Amino acid sequence: MPNPATQSSARTFARRPATFTGFVRREGTELVDGDGRPLLLRGVGLGNWLLPEGYMWRFGPGAESPREIEALVERLVGASDAEAFWRGFRDRYVTEHDIAAIADLGFDHVRLPINARVVQDAAGRPIEGGYALIDRLIDWCRDHRLWVLLDLHGAPGGQTGTNIDDSPNNLPELFMEERYRRQTIELWRELARRYRDEPVVLGYDLLNEPLPNEWQHRYADELAELYRDLTAAIREIDQRHLVMYEGSHWATNWSIFTDVWDENSALQFHKYWSPADVASIAPFLEARERLGLPIYMGEGGEHNLEWLYAAFRLYEAHGIGWNLWPWKKLDTLTSPASVVAPERWDDVIASIGGESRLTRDEARAVFDELLDAIAIDRCILRPEVVAAVTGDRPVVIPAWAYGFDGAGESFGGAAEPTGDPAVDRALDSALDPAVANLRAGDRVALRFATHGPHPDNPFEHRAGGPFRADERIVVDLAPGEWLVFDLGGETDAAEYTPLGPDREPVPATIERVARGIRVTADAAMTLAWIVADGAEYPLVALDDHEHAHSA
Angle at the Cα of 303 (from 301 to 305), degrees rounded to 5? Predict the structure, then answer.
């Protein structure tokens, strides 16, 4: 039966239907649809479906990669029942109901992570059952007006050497063994042969996050050469689909992109757990300008509502389409859909590193329960996550996430530049933020909310909860100073209250303007958040001391 939390969380978002009259393509530094209309993509990633990732199951070391997860399931339930489980998992984890829900939430595309082992056998031959899953997804997306970006998340041999790519030996053997290179090229040839005439396919994302850490330097030339060879192989068959290239080191190192390799291409970066400001994406903006290619944020999220709002407004302010990662996982606050874990799931987790806590029959029952739980109508929906990334009536907005259009547009009322370098340096010094490496150059008085030591990076991973006390950032405003927060047209300023660090209202006027909401200080005050009426988001995380005294 449907989860009642799913029903009570229902909320309406404006749909953004894809168009299939032609192919998505590059036009200068923009992506356009088949009719030439510019696109600012908003999508979600279908992670965990064709390439399971341990953290999405709440697993840790010993069950992080697809091979490790498969081994755990087989050990707990036996080979025959494990095979049946995986058939059921692939049939139920992403269904047409998921695709309909994604479209209804206002997204226009999905990014499909593909594990090579699902569509190609060890000899390099196609696996028709795997392609049938992709074909079925494309049919659903056609019916619900979503594009599909094909993402090779796990290449033959592995392109990262980590758990996220299913590498057999925890090495990026794609760049070490010629047979894996040949198989990867053949895999993309096969994808191009099958989908060259399919306008529902948005494009080809050639490799997910290749060569992180030390490998980014060792095999940089080999990565560039492989990208060129993959492009040539695809273009022998398909001249119309967009090709996307990701940088190395989790798609953040773009040093290999010195030339345009294909006229119908785009560059992709990923962004996690870092400041949401212009400096953090400056290398990608520079590459767009230098090469004249579109850029796309193909994977990001896994944080709290405050960071999600800030980061995704940053992308859109700079004309960058995006994809939220991922659509669904177990017991999450950071994805649009949260799977409720089975009752004895902790016993499965406890069985990873040692003897099973479950009999075979008990384990089989738990995994059968999981197959029922992953249905979207059994999940808890998180519309507040969608609201944060779209900027459509978000429940909380941090003060430091004002807009990115500069003085006079996103902030004002402070002393304006005089043109005299000495005077302007003094003004900048007076407003120099006390938060290193965040929004440097803005004439806005940012600071940490508390005294004492603060982390070098206050934006480290948060599993959906608020920032700790030593991470919270506020803005001091003098009378008449104002900030504008970028928001969708349906957002009503009357439904929001500006709060200070003590979570009490501050003396400010809040009003709707063309870009979103403007907050103007009526008296000297410190702004910490703007909060929607009735919001249930906990603004302050309890630290260990507070936990100890509130238990």
Answer: 100
